[in-house]
Amino acid sequence: MYEVRLTEAFFPAQNDTPLEPMTIGDLLRRQAERRPDRAALKELGFDGSIGRIWTYRELCQEAERLSLALASRHRQGAHIAVYAPNIPEWVLLEFASAMAGLVLVTVNPAFQTRELRYVLEQSRSEAIYYVDAYRGNPMGKIVAEVCDSLPGVTHRIRLDDHAALFAGVEKGSVRNVAPEDVCQIQYTSGTTGFPKGALLHHFGLVQNARDTVARIDPRDDEIVVHNMPLFHTTGCAVVLLGFISVGATLFLAPIFDPAMIARVIERERVTRFFGVPTMIVALIEEVVKTGRDVSSIRGVGSGGAMVAPELVRRSKEVLGSIVGIVYGQTEASPVITAVWPDDSLEDLTQTIGQPLSHVDVAILHPQSSRVCAVDEQGEICARGYLIMTGYNDNPDATAKAIDADGWLRTGDLGRMDARGFLRITGRVKEMIIRGGENLFPAEIENAMLEHDAIAEAAVVGVPDEKWGEQVACFMRPTGSVRPSPADLKAFIRARLAPQKTPLYWIWVDAWPLTGSGKIQKFKLAEAFAAGAYEPLTA
Q: How many whole angstroms separate alpha carbon 524 and alpha carbon 460?
C-alpha cells in the first residue's frame, strides 16, 4: 500500500507506475512485437470448447486489416455502434476502430427497440455492427425496425458476415491517431433518467487498464477467463486492455456459466478470474459441488458491489485467492481506487482501497466543495488523466459532472481515513446496483408511466443477500384497475432490458412527500425493509 498520513481527505496522485500516453492500437502493436507467437485470444463456445485462436501477431494483423476496411467507409472521427455479445469480432472491432480513428459506441446486447433507438440517435452513429440474435433477443429484427426510421445510419453490417465486414481493405489508408482522441462512447445515466454518453479517450482507457492490472502484481504468464460483458468498461478496458498490456492469454467466454467457467479454469490452468460478487458466489458453489481443481488461480477481482467478509474467506478457502475489489465509474475510464493483494481482511471488505497511481482523489463537501476532514462524509471526487472528455452533445451535464477545478463528481458519498483508504457510505444519486449492474430508477419509472393503469411510479433499490440490491417498483393507480405482476413484468420487458425488470411490485394510495411535494424514496425503502408493505412478485 501507499504509506501516507493525511491531514485532510485529499489523496495526491502517486507516481509509482509509468505514465505513458498511448493509443489502443499502440498497446496491441507493442505486444505483437514483444510476444508475436504467444496466444492472445481464444474463443470459447457455450460448452467451454475452444474455437478460433489468435496469437498476438495474428490479432494485430487482423485488427489492422479491419481498420483499413473501416477507414474505407467511415471518415475519421465518425461514430459507429457495436450491438453484440462477447465474440472475437467485438474485440477486433474495438482495436480496429481505434486504429482507424473512429469512435466506438458500445450497446448492451439485451437492449430493446426504444433503448437502441435512443443510443443511435443521441450518439449520432452512422453505422451499426451487430449479430442477428443472442439469448432469445431478436437483435437483427430490432436493428431493422430502428434503422429503417433513422436515415443517419448508413451502414448495417453483421459481424459474422466477414465479406461485408472486411470489404474495402484495399481502399483504406492508415490514419494518425493521438492518445487524447476520443475512441469510445459508453452510456451511463443519472437520476434524470436520460442516458448520457461518456466520451472516453485512448489515454484514459489504456493507462487506467494498465494501472488497474499493475495493482495485482501480474506475472508474464497470466491466463485469464474473460466473461465480463464487453459493452462495459470493465470488459472492454479493465480486463481486455489491462491483460493485453501484460501479454496474457485471454479465453473469451460468450456468457458467464459457472459450470463451464469452472471446467475451463481446471482444463486451461487459468490464473485470473474477474466477476461481480454474484458470479464469484456461483463459481464457489460450483467448485464445492464438483470438486474441480482450480488451484491455478492467483487472483479474483470484483467491482460493482462491496464484498462481504464471508465471501472473501470462502474465496480464499475454495478458489485459493482473496477477492480484490475495484471502485470507479464509466466517466473515469473506469477505475478510481483498488485494494492491494496483501491488504487486511478489514480493508478488503470494509473499504474500496486506495487510489490508483496518477489519480487525485478527495472527499468534497457536496454543497460547498471544500475538502472534508479525515473520516468526514462527503462526495467522492477524482481528477487526472482518466477523466472523460465530457458527455456527448450534453454540455450542461458535463459542467455538472466535472467542476471548474477538474474534479469528477462521482455522486457517491464516502469517507477517507488518514491512510487514504476510502469507504462508500451512500449515494448522492439514486442508482441501484444489482449484481454489479448499474440501474437507474428514472428510466424504469418513465417506461412504467406509459401504462394506462399507473398514475405515478417510484423505483427504489432494496437490500438483497444474493444480488446486493433488487428493484422495487411502487405504483399509484389511475383508477380501480391494478394489473397483475405477470402483466406488469411483460409490459416492462417489452420496453427495457431484462435486468431492469423490478422484482417487487407494490401498489400504494399515497406517497411520503417532502415539503415541496417530492416523493421521499428513502422512506419507501425504509418502510419496505421494515416489512410495512406486502410486495407482489411475478
A: 8
Return the HEC string of 42-81: EEECCCCCEEEEEEHHHHHHHHHHHHHHHHHHCCCCCEEE
Say how far apart CA 412 and CA 331 lie, in whole Å.
13
Q: What whole-number distance in Å separates Cα of residue 198 and Cα of residue 201?
A: 10
User: What does the alpha-carbon distance between residue 13 and residue 97 come to, in Å, rounded to a whole number?
Assistant: 31
Structure-block grid coordinates of residue 189: 445515466
The secondary structure of residue 390, as a DSSP letter, is E
Q: What is the 3-state secondary structure (H, E, C) of 91-108?
A: HHHHHHHHHCCCEEEEEC
Burial class (CB in 10 A: 0-12, 13-18, 19+), 475: buried
Q: Is the pLDDT of residue 192 over 50?
A: no
pLDDT tens-digit map of 342-385: 999 899 988 999 999 999 999 999 889 999 999 998 999 999 99
3-state secondary structure (DSSP) of residue 443? helix
Burial 36-51 (b: 16+ CB within 10 A, else e): eebbbbbbbeeebeee
Buried (b) or exposed (e) across 55-77, using 16+ Cβ within 10 A?
A: bbbbbbebbbebbbbbbbbbeee
Q: What is the mean pLDDT of residues 439-450?
A: 84
79 phi, psi to nearest 5 deg = -100, 125
243 phi/psi in degrees, rounded to 5: -85, -25
Q: Which three cell numbers stand for residue 479?
A: 383508477
Amino acid identity, residue 518?
Answer: K
- Tell whether the torsion through CA atoms of 308, 311, 313 and 315 is positive or negative: negative
Percentages of the chain per state (helix, strand, coil), in multiples of 5: 30, 25, 40
- The whole-angstrom distance between residue 138's C-alpha and the CA centroid of its chain comes to 23
* In contact, 353 and 421? CB cutoff 8 Å: yes
Average pLDDT over residues 418-445: 82
The 8 Å CB, 24+ separation contacts for 254-260 are 254/44, 254/45, 254/46, 254/85, 254/86, 254/87, 255/46, 255/85, 255/86, 255/135, 255/227, 256/227, 256/282, 257/46, 258/282, 258/283, 258/285, 258/286, 259/286, 259/290, 260/44, 260/46, 260/47, 260/48
Going by pLDDT thresholds of 50, 70 and 90, the confidence category of residue 190 is very low
Q: Which residues, listed in sequence order, are joined to residue 328 by a DSSP beta bridge?
A: 335
Per DSSP, the three-state class of 339 is coil
Q: Which residues on neighbouring strands pair with residue 508, listed in sequence order?
A: none
Residue type, 63: A
pLDDT digits (tens, 9 = 90+) for 286-311: 999 999 999 999 999 998 656 777 88
pLDDT at 427 over 70: no
Phi/psi at 415 (5° precision): -130, 150
Per the structure block, which three cell numbers stand in for 79?
A: 461514430
Q: pLDDT band at residue 497, thresholds of 50, 70 and 90?
A: very high
> How many angstroms separate the CA atoms of 278 and 435, rounded?
6
